[in-house]
Write a structure and sequence with these properties.
5 helices; 3 strands; about 50% helix
C-alpha cells in the first residue's frame, strides 16, 4: 500500500478524534492534551513536518473549535476553545501605570513579582 500524506483538514480531525477516543476509554471529557512531533508525523502519514503544514493544521483546528500551540521543539498542545468560557477575563487597568511608566517600570515590576 502506498503511503499518502493526509491533508491538514484530516489531520486536524484525527487530532480531535484522538481526544474523543481517549476520553471514552477513560470515562471523561478531554479538553486539552499534547503529542510529540513524531506522533503528529504518524497521524498525518508524513515523513517530515514542515512549519507551513503545522500552520494549516492550526487553522483547520481553529475552524473545528480547537487551539493548537507549540510547547517546545518536540510537542504540540491542543485545547478545546469552548473551555475558556469560565476563565477570568482581564482588562489592562491593573497595569496602566506600568504601561505609562515605560519599559524600565515593566522590567522592575516583572523582576519583583514574576522572576524567581
Amino acid at each position: 500500500m502506498t503511503k499518502k500524506n493526509l491533508s491538514a483538514e484530516h489531520t486536524a480531525k484525527l487530532i480531535i478524534l484522538n481526544a474523543e477516543f481517549y476520553g471514552s476509554e477513560k470515562g471523561k471529557s478531554i479538553s486539552r492534551y499534547k503529542i510529540s512531533l513524531n506522533t503528529l508525523r504518524a497521524i498525518s502519514k508524513r515523513d517530515a513536518i514542515r512549519d507551513a503544514f503545522v500552520a494549516e493544521v492550526e487553522l483547520e483546528l481553529a475552524e473545528l473549535g480547537w487551539l493548537m500551540s507549540r510547547n517546545n521543539d518536540d510537542e504540540c498542545c491542543f485545547m478545546l476553545m469552548s473551555t475558556t468560557g469560565n476563565w477570568a477575563k482581564l482588562s489592562s487597568k491593573r497595569i496602566t501605570d506600568l504601561i505609562d511608566g515605560g519599559e524600565s517600570a515593566i522590567d522592575e515590576a516583572y523582576e519583583e513579582y514574576c522572576e524567581i
